[in-house]
Amino acid sequence: MKKLIAIVVIVLGFAFNTNAQKVKTVSLEQTKGEFTQKQITLSEGTYIFEIANTNVGHNVGFVLAPKSDIKAHIKNAYVTAQVKNNEKETSKKVVLTKGEYVYFCPLNPTPQYTLIVE
After folding, report:
1. What's the CA gap between 113 and 118, in Å, rounded?
2. Cα of 111 vs its chain's centroid, Å
3. What are the pLDDT digits (tens) for 34-46?
4. Can you give the pTM of this predicted structure?
5. Number of C-alpha atoms within 13 angstroms, CB side, residue 19?
6. pLDDT on residue 21
């Protein structure tokens, strides 16, 4: 019985460790009025968005939403603080499933760009 419990604990520990390693970072750069990355294609998974403010001259942010409902912002994708000039900030973890999304910054402001999850 003790061996069975030990095996279960090891397997669960390995599973949690493997899931923790699957978080990927997507780095995006904003300049005045635009993102430098115009379209992104990702696979399904968990992501953190890192947003760089490159000489915009004021704070910027980040919004990600399903293309089918642009007003349904994915709140975990918001940066945890507005991105100051020439600095970077990150979002919380975001689980993305297959589909089309848009990303933009209303503070910069930028156009809406496409993010595709395959």
Report:
1. 16
2. 18
3. 999 999 999 999 9
4. 0.82
5. 8
6. 62
